[in-house]
Amino acid sequence: MKKILCVLFILSLVVVHAQRKPKIKGNRNVIEVLEPLPAFHTIELKDDLQINLDDSASESYSVVGDDNLIDVLRFRVVDSTLIITSFYKITGKKQLDITVNYRQLKSLIVRDGSVVTNQRIQADELSILSNGLARIELSANAAVVNLSLEESSKGNFNMEADSLSLVLKDKANVQLYGVTQQYKLKMEGNSSANLEGTSDSLNISLKGSPNLKAQKLEAAVIRLETGETAVARIYGYRELELLASGASRTYLYGNPGITMTTFEDSAELHKEQE
């Protein structure tokens, strides 16, 4: 048994070491590179890089940076997905500006690093997923928007959509200004959200210990299901259906009609002044 445990420990060390990227510093000799890309509609960033997105007539990428860093970057398109990675962990540089030019964007996956849009994305349907330590700053107009943030990722969004779905898990954090007809929000773990804008219909589900600040999100009709130690600040002006349990706390702004479908345990409802 001891021999087996020893072998497993050594193998785990080998795996961890193999997963570590070698480090590199820029040589401070800045050049510019522009390369075309095959057509894609999805972008996946896997490493700690900062990517700027630009709407364009054709797909390409440009890099302005230290010339010894250019070759450590990899841009490849697989099944209409542009996958961006780095062979090395970049620990220092004079400059490294990476821009991806897209013609059509349906989906964005950010597993590390950051993505910033230089222009407002126009799409029929837009899906965004982030995890790890990823950061996203993005504006978009779309009929349908689906946002999912997990682990310690963060997002800053400005959205106009007919239908908007936002899912937050773990320690994810989001700031979002949205104008939408149908808004669906699900928060779990220790996630947090600061929401502003307007919505005709707002459906909220809170589990764990999330912190929702949505007193500047004016919604006509709200359905709030909250439990455990969740904290929610909401603004409603027509109807509120409340399903509250556990030690959850709800702070209500506005003057909607209230239907308490469930009000259990030590749940609290506070009426706040506007």
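[next item in queue]
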Amino acid sequence: MPLRHRLDDEREHGSGAEAKGLGGDTSDVDSSTARTLVERLLTVYRTLRRWQLSRARPSDEDNDEVLKDFVALYQTVIGSRPCRHAVLDLQGEDTISILDLLLRECLFLSDYEEHPTE
């Protein structure tokens, strides 16, 4: 299954990562926890980008685990006001990574809406 379909499926049906304490209601997290969640999202995102750009491919199991963590963290950060505020506090390379992530998400969604059956 292509990455975009896996991410869409995770978005629709959940990733299972909620059992690990990811996802769910995070509206009451403190600013320190929010920063930690944003940092974890950046770390996982950088791992995915590194795999995408390198010739060395992870095993399917490793890839699935990282994708599940990524989707759960992304949903948590986007769904939490304190996490969104932590994103706004990012500086330097972290800001570029988050903007890259959000731009890719925006492009993915617009592409998916134009070609939903592909």
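[queue empty]
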